[in-house]
Amino acid sequence: MANPHILIVDDEKNIREGLAKFFKFEGYDVTLAADGQEALDLINKSSFSLVICDLRMPKIPGDELLLMVKKSHPFLPFIMLTGHGTVENAVASMKDGAYNFLTKPVNLEYLSLLVSQAIDRQRLQEEQEQVQTLLAKEKHAIKQHVVSASAAMRRIYQLVEQVAPTKANVIITGESGVGKEVIATAIHALSPRYNKPMVTVHCAALSENLLESELFGHEKGAFTGAHAMHKGRFELANNGDLFLDEIGEISPTVQVKLLRVLQERTFERVGGEQRIEVDVRIISATNRNLLDEVAQDRFREDLYYRLNVINIHIPPLRERREDILPLAGQFLREFSGENHKRIKGFTTDCVSMLHEFNWPGNVRQLRNCIESAVVMCDGELIKKEHLPIYVESQPYRKFCIDEEISLSRMERHYIDFILERYDGNKSHAAKKLGISRKTLQRKLQIEEDDDGTSCK
Ligand SMILES: Nc1ncnc2c1ncn2[C@@H]1O[C@H](COP(=O)(O)OP(=O)(O)OP(=O)(O)O)[C@@H](O)[C@H]1O
Ligand SMILES: [Mg+2]
Fold first, then answer.
1. For the domain that residue 225 is a member of, what is the CATH number?
2. Residue 77: cis peptide before it, omega within 30 degrees of 0
3. What would you give as a GO molecular function for this chain, any one (predicted)?
4. Which ligand is nearest to the CA of 176?
């Protein structure tokens, strides 16, 4: 690291040079200025770690110089040197941001101590700023990675930012492939635990016994084949996050053990007696309706409430179509790069097909679709024929009216069109139409009363 660089400003030549000699000997780089104006020019040209400045000087006095410099270099520490007659001004300059002041004749040992303290504090401040800038950049990168163009995803992202700094357990729900793991990872990455582990357990992939030993570990000899002690995922995730994927699949025995860790924060390894203490936040995910599972006695209610401090529900992709094209664009960039292709985008009919398809496999299906389209494409644009056949096979309907009808009939046609798009879900349809659910129901009722039938 380069030596700290001090600027010494004093109109008295012998003081300036005496101080320079002393601080050079102490290992600092030193530059001298004979008045405030010269100092100002030097500060604007080079970078200094600290300024030692006489208060009373011709042209620009020290306290004025300080005020001028603080505007452009708010963190540059100033130590003021003052004669007995100007102590009051020196005190005032502390209020204006000077680090400290010393009366002349200067006690060099004390000045040297002040200088090194001020420089250390300055370095710390700069380091903290760098960390903050890095964190802000990191947060921005995470946000860019999680596509959230729709209002629903934006709300989810806000929730992620709110919950990330806390220790609250979170359950993420939603159909398969909606992005539950993406959201779990974002919560971890934005939390103060980001540099501690995030450990994942796929609960459905393991048998009951295996899951138990995977979560809590086992002692040597706990069961046949347990040749050595094995740490469980809870221990590995200590001080970090444990992501329990497909939590709806765990057996009643494991549910009881899990509840105990959540209540007491301690557990024993399988076959062991030693109590192990852990500090772990649990993020779980499921595509089941856990409340139904509770109602049917398949999932413990007490465990459900322990895990479900915050619930983040991710709607299926077909209910947030604004995300489809931005996601498709992100995947196109990713796979074009991976396959060394220069594909610029999609043709217009391709865009409509992607937008209108219902994506039963959600974001994962869209990702696979774009990956295969990139492989198939040998030009600059992805065309209809590059998309997997299933995207084309679903006829997508645009709203169109090819007969002359009354305004009220057209309204009804449009209401039916939107209802169909939202699988008959009246709340979603009403929201899309910009009316209340009650108004939608009234409009549907009026039409049926008029015609005796609903018109489709
Ligand atoms: N908002 C998003 N932005 C970018 N990529 C996303 C987003 N949501 C999902 N993905 C991508 O879609 C794929 C599926 O996401 P993820 O694995 O998180 O889904 P899931 O809900 O956990 O699925 P499953 O229920 O099958 O476990 C991943 O490749 C993921 O990177
Ligand atoms: Mg998943």
1. 3.40.50.300
2. no
3. sequence-specific DNA binding
4. 1
Owner of token pair 């990191």? 138
Picking from 258, 286, 315, the residue at the C-terminal end of a domain is 315
Terminal Cα-to-Cα distance of the chain (whole angstroms): 77
Find out whether the beta carbon of 152 lies less than 6 Å from any atom of ligand 1. Answer: no
Q: Is residue 106 domain-shared with residue 153, that is, in the same domain?
A: no
Q: Is residue 131 one of the residues assigned to a domain?
A: no
Report the separation in Å between the CA atom of 259 and the middle of ligand 1, taken as the mean of its atom positions: 28
Give Cα 82 distance to the centre of its chain: 50
The number of distinct structural domains making up the chain is 4
Provide the b/e sequence for 47-59 (b: ≥16 CB within 10 Å).
Answer: ebbbbbbbbebee
The answer to the question of residue 137 being in a domain is no
Atom of ligand 1 nearest to the CA of 146: 3
Band of the pLDDT at 143, cuts 50, 70, 90?
confident
Q: What angle do CA 331, 334, 336 make, to 5 degrees?
A: 100
Q: Does the C-beta of 367 come closer than 6 Å to ligand 1?
A: yes
| C-beta separation of 92 from 64 below 8 A | no
**Residue 359 belongs to domain spanning:** 318-393
Q: How far apart are CA 93 and CA 87, in angstroms?
A: 10
Question: How far apart, in Å, are the Cα atoms of 6 and each of 51, 79, 321, 435?
Answer: 6, 11, 60, 68
Give CA–CA dist 359/321, Å, rounded. 10
Query: Is the C-beta atom of 283 inside 6 A of ligand 1?
Result: no
Q: Which ligand is nearest to the CA of 149?
A: 1
Residue 323 belongs to domain with CATH number: 1.10.8.60
pLDDT (tens digit per residue) in 276-327: 999 999 999 999 999 999 999 999 999 999 999 999 999 999 999 999 999 9
Residues 168 and 48 in one domain: no
